[in-house]
Amino acid sequence: MSRVGIIGIGHTRFGRRGDATVQELAFEAYREALVDADLDPALIEATVIGAVPEYHKQRSVAGVIQEYLSLTPRPTWLTEAACASGSAAIRSGWLAIKAGVHDVVAVIGCQKMTELETAEILALMGRVGDVQWESVFGTTFPGYYAMFTRCHMHEFGTTEEQLAQVAVKNHHYGARNAKAMFQKEITAAKALDSDSVAAPLKVYDCCANADGAACVILAGEAAARRLGGARTVWLDGMGCASDSMSVLRRGDLTGLPAAREAAAQAYRMAGVEAADVKVAEVHDCFTIAEIMAYEDLGFCDRGEGGAFIADQQSYLAGTTPVNLDGGLKAKGHPIGATGVSMTCEMVSQLRGDCGERQVLGADIALTHNVGGIGQYCFVHVLRRD
Hints:
single chain; alpha/beta; Peroxisomal Thiolase, Chain A, domain 1; nine-stranded mixed β-sheet; two-stranded antiparallel ribbon; 13 helices; 36% helix; 18% strand
């Protein structure tokens, strides 16, 4: 079957972007992607927007973005899957091209989160679980992941020091990413001494809300070879799975079954194994989430995620470098933009454009984007010929 390639990428600076509206952020990323692809915007046949609408004052954000990009009356639509909305949008654009409906599609993930107060954001995120049986009891997003942490610690002996090492690593690389929200290294002592958020998770175990946007331009194989040439990066493995909205219905809180299923699908489609992945972006909304991802994706065995980070196997020189752009932890987490941002970073790695963060010889990369508390998971395998 014909492949779908990425021929252009664009990325804004993440952070508190009071200088731009959501449509201006989308345009900033879109314009950069057009320049990167050296593409005439007349060739864009459709756009897919990844965003969570509740965070915006504008009810239907895809429409205003399409208008701002001067792409009307071409089709556009919004894709939402909580924190995995960006990867869901990429899958939607990929499907449109595979179906033969469109040949060149711009996918834009964008989010303005800092327009809301922290209490409002916590309330919204607390409803990511089952609103009938769980959120009515006051659940919060950190609270859910604190449960995962406690279970992982109890089952496998994972320590707070190992959690802190994830934060240290990601801030180390975030300090080398000009578009990251936090560009400053931290020490393990600073992470361990930070205030409690939802025990045992502390401030430095948690990612930050942010504003930002990212864009990838997808094209069918013939168009990609013509327009993108040797710089094209291929989406060769696409995995997607779901799980119960309620953690009460899950038998295992030491990992995410949806992530394991999505990874199996993506590896099978791409014809690769976990050991073939040279570099990865995983969903580190909390430090425990990155440790669980190591295990769910097969980078190490179940229960060995803590040792994996302690041995620096996810560092640049490790067996599987992970989140070399700082991850959500240091780069920031504008939830609609995250999956597309991950993809931009992996395209840059496969092109060899990441400077001091570059994984030498990287030819196969992976993104792992989780929505909510594991209700949705998208795993994509990218390859450079």
